[in-house]
Amino acid sequence: MTDTTDPVTAEIAAHDATATLAQAGGRWVLSMTRDLPYPAERVWPKLTEPGELGKWSPVVPSRPLTSVGPATTRENPGEESIDAEVLACDPPRELVHRWGPEQLLRWTLTPTAEGCRLTLAHTFDDRSECGMYGAGWHLCLAVLVVVLGGQDVPRITGERAGDYGWAALRDRYDARLA
Fold this sequence. Notes:
Helix content is 28%, strand content 31%. It contains 5 helices and 8 strands; from the N terminus they run αββααββββββαα. It has an 8-stranded antiparallel beta sheet. A hairpin with a 7-residue loop joins strand 4 (69-74) and strand 5 (82-90). The longest helix is centred in the C-terminal third of the chain and has 19 residues, at 130-148.
């Protein structure tokens, strides 16, 4: 998508394909950060409430992710649900949850002078998927920023990701994290 008046496209372009990839316990951890001009208390519901997650994230749980315990998640209504589980929850600082049997998402909100720093650490097994996850989260985080700013825009999931440069982002993340 080349429409620079589209707020999501502008937010995607505002961030380079920056992330880190590390190995921990035989698994891969992709970490991404965004500095947000909002306090952690404003961002927290966007990470934990199903209705808010459904506006920007591929993880849309069956219940609020505000307490430790099992849940299910799905990307779109009508799709088969995937097991999930909240492993740790320390509002509004940290949320750790499993997404499916093998993926772990750790969200950390750290106060800054201007708002907060959002850090996502996505743990997975297959290193070849790092560019795919980096590109996907890059798009999702762009939508999150726009939604936090009060605009109602559609999520970018599935085939729509191609319209926002997902393949080129994937290639950039793969090259940077090689």
